[in-house]
Amino acid sequence: MTGTAPPFVKKPEGTCYLVICRDGPGAATLRAQHLDGHLEHVERHWTRYITAGPFREPGGDALIGSLFLVMGTALEEVKSLMQADPYITCGMYASVEYKEFTNSIGQFIGGKIWESREAIRHRAAGGPPDDVSKGLS
Question: Considering the entire predicted model, what is its pTM?
Answer without folding.
Answer: 0.83
